[in-house]
Design a protein that fits this description.
- This protein has about 100 residues and is α+β, with helices and mostly antiparallel strands.
- The chain is built from three helices and three strands, in the order H-E-E-E-H-H.
- The longest helix is centred in the C-terminal third of the chain and has 17 residues, at about 75-90.
- It is globular, with a radius of gyration of 15 Å.
- The chain starts with 11 loop residues before the first helix and ends in a 5-residue tail after the last helix.
Length: about 100
């Protein structure tokens, strides 16, 4: 695994643990792991079969918003993801 920043998880076991933890929470988090000075949260958009087909994310420079600030926005992102799921269900091919 390639280290992009000092926070990049490069140990496969630690990465697997983190992915399991995030899957349990139902959100994605990037705490300066990909780009130093940038954090992000994301939530899945699911189709009628509960498959993840997209994501709604919010990114911000850490100089403007802390990760905790982004985490407080998760309910708003989840609402947007649910709305997108409903639109996708209405416009599915053959529907």
């Amino acid at each position: 695994l390639t280290r992009n920043t000092p926070r990049t998880l490069t140990d496969p076991a630690r990465l697997e643990d983190e992915l399991e933890r995030l899957a349990t929470r139902g959100i994605g988090i990037d705490n300066e792991e990909f780009v130093r000075g940038m954090s992000a949260v994301a939530v899945p958009v699911r189709d009628a079969q509960d498959r993840v087909v997209a994501a709604v994310a919010c990114h911000a420079p850490t100089a403007r918003l802390l990760l905790d600030d982004l985490l407080r926005a998760v309910p708003v992102l989840q609402g947007a993801a649910q709305s997108m799921s409903a639109v996708l269900a209405e416009h599915r091919p053959g529907g």
